[in-house]
Design brief:
The structure is a homodimer. Chain A is mainly alpha-helical. Chain A has one domain: Tetracycline Repressor, domain 2 (Orthogonal Bundle). Chain A has eight helices and no strands. In chain A, helix 1 packs across helix 3, helix 1 packs across helix 5 and helix 7 runs antiparallel to helix 8. At the A-B interface, helix 6, helix 7 and helix 8 of A face helix 6, helix 7 and helix 8 of B.
Chain lengths: 194, 194
DNA sequence: ATATTGTGAGCGAACATTCACACACATATA
DNA sequence: TATATGTGTGTGAATGTTCGCTCACAATAT
């Protein structure tokens, strides 16, 4: 986000908001410019193509994932606690930024452009690698059971996180994500703990 | 699908194929009619609105889920084996019909229309209820651990299935879904087995 | 001969993008 | 200090394309 001007950030956040409302087809230059309060062509002073706005959205996601990961590692050095913190923090962030949650797991939005889908894939892989690493550390400390491959455990953790957020969004945010998320984490923890 | 004519089914399958290729924005009346081999307006002989084609797609999904569920229950009466069969059959079906896999978990495609999103929600809930029921039966027989709520176990099972299919699609079907799916199931089984 | 299915032209709306132009403000030059 | 030039940001009109959909008419099948 350091590479983006104030105005560009403003546009990116507005774009996320729009997409959250009704999917990617809600994001048109016209609607976006109206939300910002300028005329359509003014947006092209800040982004050469609409696509570049979408790239900006992905940059927000990546930055957020990295920030949470660092915070988690600073907070504790017990892998299982780090994993819990990772879950809790993610839910907290999504609760506070539903629009972001709305878009972050909707990979399909970016499927039609190779630059975009490549970036999605990269973010996903980085994130997964980080979780795998935490699980492996947990296994080394004998906190997490070793009879299951770390990659698979990490996969299952990530998949549950993802689905609960998806359902929360489909339910139009009608249940408390923090609460349900915590419950799911506790079940998962009991499944993988030694 | 009993309510649909031959031609309508043809159109629905072609529509699924198109969406699989590059997302929902690939599904236009023009492209669809070209794929079928008629002119655009001919489609309106079979469906009054584009939306109704999407409803047809959802009907295919629902029918498929119900069929698999019945087959699974006929095959065995041991819940854990039924669950395994459910997983394996789903992966097999998706392997053989990648286009369907491409669309079935992309709920966002239908977000902008209330009729569609309601149907998506209904299919999802029915499916989840069926899995919960199987898990509860497994717990009654002491095959599945009882210290975890059945709803949560079912949720975690479903989430893993969903994510592996999603990743398979994002990886452009480059890995063997049956194989990877089986591995994930085995890990899940070990997590929940008594 | 009646019902079903397909054709071709065309409609208005929405879309992303481009263009000439305007105005405020900062920086450089005389 | 006064003037000139550059930069950032906005406006309004216009472009070409694509979209879903309609309609009068024609071919085909039962």
């Amino acid at each position: 986000m350091k590479n983006y001007t104030k105005r560009q950030k403003e546009i990116i956040l507005a774009a996320i908001d729009l997409i959250a409302k009704n999917g990617i087809q809600e994001l048109t230059i016209k609607k976006l410019s109206q939300k910002i309060g300028v005329v359509e062509s003014a947006l092209y002073r800040h982004f050469p193509k609409k696509q570049d706005i979408l790239l900006g959205i992905l940059a927000v996601f990546r930055e957020n994932k990295e920030a949470i990961l660092q915070a988690v590692q600073a907070e504790s050095d017990v892998p299982l606690e780090q994993l819990r913190a990772l879950f809790i923090k993610r839910f907290k962030y999504f609760s506070e930024h539903p629009a972001v949650a709305s878009v972050i797991f909707a990979e399909d939005l970016f499927r039609n452009d190779s630059r975009l889908s490549q970036m999605v894939y990269e973010i996903m892989k980085t994130n997964q690698a980080a979780i795998i690493h935490l699980v492996e550390n947990g296994q080394k400390r004998d906190d997490i059971r070793k009879d299951l491959p770390a990659t698979q455990i990490a996969f299952i953790l990530a998949s549950a996180l993802r689905l609960i957020v998806t359902q929360w969004r489909l339910a139009e945010y009608r249940f408390d994500l923090n609460e349900e998320g915590k419950k799911i984490w506790e079940t998962l923890e009991r499944m993988v703990k030694n």
